[in-house]
């Protein structure tokens, strides 16, 4: 009986810790209402990498629709047997394995997980911080997304020129970022107060 109660309690705690996939992804205020801890993670990335919260959230929406377990569909062997995935992309940021390992090494975050929102937000901030190397401004969200998708080497080589679909997606990401930025004026991100702030 005690063992069953402990199992139920463990499952409850795990369920309560997992993030919800936002029901209304058009409104960042609704998104943050459903996942209140996300605001602090966005502020942390903004402080560390100068990454705009609206841009980070627009990228996550495009990449995974805020699903921590998002991954490309598996290819089908003989047309019906699930086989390997088309890419190693995974998690909120859809970071591929090689770039994720580079991020962990460069930031010394060895335990970072792609299914963790905080780690994913920090990863995107880290990636966007490299935009200065190709002279992309923080407000050029469409260009930021293309570089995020293609890598900065690909962006320099202009690999996106033959990908009209990617340019269209980048415009969509920019639109969502602008909308999120506007919405944040009515629900501004606030620093979480620590115990010591009362003194």
What does this structure look like?
The chain is mostly helical and 199 residues long. Helix content is 54%, strand content 5%. The chain is built from eight helices and two strands. A two-stranded antiparallel sheet has the order 1-2. Helix 4 packs across helix 8 and helix 7 packs antiparallel against helix 8. The longest helix has 20 residues. The C terminus is likely disordered.
Features:
199 residues; globular; disordered C terminus; two-stranded antiparallel ribbon; mainly alpha; 54% helix
Principal-axis shape: globular
On the 0 to 100 scale, the average pLDDT is 86
N-to-C series of helices and strands: HHHHEEHHHH
Structural class: mainly alpha
Largest sheet: 2 strands, antiparallel
How much is the radius of gyration in Å? 19 Å
Number of DSSP-assigned strands = 2
Are there runs of 5+ residues with pLDDT below 50, and where?
Answer: 10-17, 74-78, 80-85, 195-199
Strand content: under 5%
């Amino acid at each position: 009986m005690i063992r069953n109660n402990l199992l139920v309690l463990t499952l409850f705690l795990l369920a309560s810790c997992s993030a919800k996939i936002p029901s209304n992804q058009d409104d960042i205020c609704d998104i943050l209402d459903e996942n209140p801890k996300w605001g602090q993670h966005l502020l942390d990335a903004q402080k560390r990498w100068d990454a705009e919260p609206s841009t980070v959230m627009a990228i996550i929406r495009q990449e995974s629709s805020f699903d921590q377990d998002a991954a490309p569909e598996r290819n089908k062997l003989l047309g019906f047997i699930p086989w390997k995935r088309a890419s190693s992309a995974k998690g909120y940021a859809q970071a591929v394995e090689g770039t994720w390992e580079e991020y962990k090494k460069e930031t010394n975050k060895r335990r970072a997980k792609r299914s963790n929102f905080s780690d994913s937000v920090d990863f995107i901030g880290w990636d966007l911080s490299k935009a200065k190397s190709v002279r992309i401004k923080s407000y050029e969200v469409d260009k930021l997304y293309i570089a995020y998708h293609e890598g900065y080497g690909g962006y320099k080589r202009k690999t996106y020129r033959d990908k009209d679909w990617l340019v269209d997606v980048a415009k969509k990401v920019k639109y969502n970022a602008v909308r999120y930025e506007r919405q944040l004026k009515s629900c501004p991100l606030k620093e979480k107060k620590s115990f010591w702030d009362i003194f």
